[in-house]
Design a protein that fits this description.
Length: 366
C-alpha cells in the first residue's frame, strides 16, 4: 500500500521550535515524529510514502539521504506555495503516480490504529473515502464528524465553536481515499479537504464513511500535546519501548548508549536520558525526556519537561512542564515553567523566571 503524509504546515503553535525544524522532524522521546509515523505505516505493510511538503522541505530530504526509511521508499512532493490539505494530497499523489487507493496521514498524528482493519472497513462499505475517528472531550480545535448508525458520515464540521460540536468523535487525520476522490479537488489553488472536499463528497450519499476506534491517538500540534506525547510514549501507551535503542535501567528509567545518570540523582519514572547526556548527582528528574548530549547540573530540577539535544540546565535551575530547544540554556537558579518554550540556542538568564513564555531562537530578530 501507498500513503501521502502531509508535512507541509508551518507548525505555528510550536514556534519557536518549528522556526528551524519542521514539526514532523521534532523528536518525541528522541525519535522524530515522522519516523514514529513511518514505523507505524511500515508495520502495516505500507512500502511507498510521498511526503507532501511546503515548509522547510530540504530538512526532510537531508534527514532521509537514501530516500528510504526502513522498508519504505520515500518520495518528495514540494509545493511552490501551500495548496491546503486536499490540494497537497492531489499534488503529491499525482507526483508519485498513485493509480490505486492510498492512505493519507496528517503529519502530526500519533496513533496505533490497525490499518488492516481500516482497509477492511473501507472495502466492506465500498467507500470513496474513509476517515478514522477518535473521541475527545473538546472537539473545538479539531474536525467534528457525526455519523449515521452504519458508519456513513453525516457531516464534517471543522473547528466547531466551543459547545456547538455535533459529535465528540473527531477526524483523527488518517484517511483511505480512492483515486477518484482527486477528481473533486480543483488543481492549482488552495483546497482544504476539511472545508471543501469532504463537504462536497457528502452531497451524494454512500461515499464517505468513518471508523470509530478507541486506539491511542494524539495530535502533537501544541506545546501541551507535544509534552503529553512524551509522557505517553514513556509510559508505553504506544505499545512499544520509548526508543528502539533505549534500555530500562530501573522500572520506567530508560537510558540510551553511554548516557551518564549519576546514582545520586533523584528520579521519578518515567524518564528517558539520551546518548551522551549527563545528569549530575544532586539533581532531580521527574517524568521527563532528556535529549542526547544534554547536561543537567547539580541541584537542578527537571519535571514534566522535554529537553532537546545539547541543551543545558545549570545548577539550581528549575524546568517544569516546559520545552528546551536544541542547545538552549537555562542559567543558574533560573525558573522555567507553565509550558514555556526556550528556542534552539536561546538562554534564560540566571535567576530569572519564565512562565508560559517563549524565548526566540538565538540570534534571531523576532
Ligand atoms: N503539504 C501541505 N500543504 N501540508 C499541509 C498544508 C499544506 O498547504 N496545510 C496543512 N498541512 C499539513 C500539516 O503539516 C499537518 O500535518 C496536517 O496537514 C494537518 O494540519 P494542522 O495544521 O495540524 O491541522 P489541525 O491539527 O488544526 O486540524 C487537522 O487535524 C485534526 C486531527 O489531527 C484537521 O484535519 C482536523 O479536522 C483534524 O481533527
Ligand atoms: Mg494538527
Amino acid at each position: 500500500m501507498k500513503a501521502v503524509v502531509l508535512v507541509g504546515g508551518e507548525g505555528t503553535r510550536l514556534r519557536p521550535l518549528t522556526k528551524t525544524t519542521p514539526k514532523p522532524l521534532l523528536p518525541v522521546a528522541g525519535v522524530p515524529l515522522v519516523e514514529r509515523q513511518l514505523q507505524w505505516l511500515g508495520a502495516h505493510g505500507v512500502d511507498e510514502v510521498v511526503l507532501a511538503m511546503g515548509y522547510l522541505p530540504d530538512a526532510f530530504v537531508e534527514h532521509f539521504p537514501d530516500d528510504r526509511f526502513q522498508s519504505i521508499h520515500l518520495l518528495y512532493a514540494v509545493e511552490s506555495e501551500p495548496l491546503g490539505t486536499a490540494g497537497a494530497i492531489r499534488f503529491a499523489a499525482e507526483h508519485a503516480g498513485f493509480d490505486d487507493r492510498f492512505f493519507v496521514c496528517n503529519g502530526d498524528v500519533l496513533t496505533t490504529l490497525d490499518l488492516s482493519a481500516f482497509v477492511d472497513f473501507h472495502v466492506a462499505h465500498e467507500a470513496a473515502a474513509t476517515i478514522h475517528l477518535s473521541r475527545v472531550d473538546d472537539p473545538s480545535a479539531l474536525g467534528a464528524v457525526p455519523t449515521y448508525p452504519d458508519g456513513e458520515v453525516e457531516a464534517f464540521v471543522e473547528k466547531p465553536p466551543p459547545g456547538t460540536a455535533p459529535s465528540n468523535w473527531i477526524n483523527a487525520g488518517t484517511y483511505l481515499l480512492e483515486r477518484s476522490v482527486l477528481e473533486h479537488v480543483p488543481a492549482g489553488r488552495m483546497v482544504a479537504i476539511e472545508h471543501e472536499t469532504f463537504p462536497l463528497l457528502l452531497q451524494q450519499r454512500g461515499q464517505v464513511y468513518a471508523l470509530e476506534t478507541d486506539d491511542y491517538w494524539l495530535d502533537v500540534g501544541t506545546p501541551q500535546t507535544y509534552l503529553r506525547a512524551h509522557a505517553d510514549v514513556l509510559e508505553g501507551r504506544l505499545g512499544l519501548p520509548p526508543a528502539p535503542d533505549a534500555r530500562e535501567s530501573a522500572p520506567g528509567v530508560w537510558v540510551q548508549g553511554d548516557a551518564d545518570l549519576a546514582s545520586e540523582v533523584e528520579v521519578e519514572a518515567p524518564v528517558l536520558v539520551g546518548v551522551g547526556a549527563s545528569v549530575a548527582g544532586g539533581s532531580r528528574i521527574e517524568r521527563s525526556s532528556i535529549g542526547a548530549g544534554a547536561e543537567i547540573q547539580a541541584g537542578a530540577v527537571v519535571a514534566g519537561a522535554v529537553v532537546h539535544s545539547g541543551a543545558r540546565v545549570c545548577s539550581g535551575a528549575v524546568v517544569r512542564d516546559s520545552i528546551l530547544g536544541v542547545g538552549a540554556c537555562v542559567e543558574s537558579d533560573a525558573t522555567v515553567l507553565e509550558q514555556s518554550i526556550v528556542g534552539p540556542g536561546a538562554s534564560v538568564p540566571a535567576g530569572s523566571t519564565l512562565a508560559g513564555g517563549r524565548v526566540p531562537v538565538a540570534a534571531s530578530s523576532d
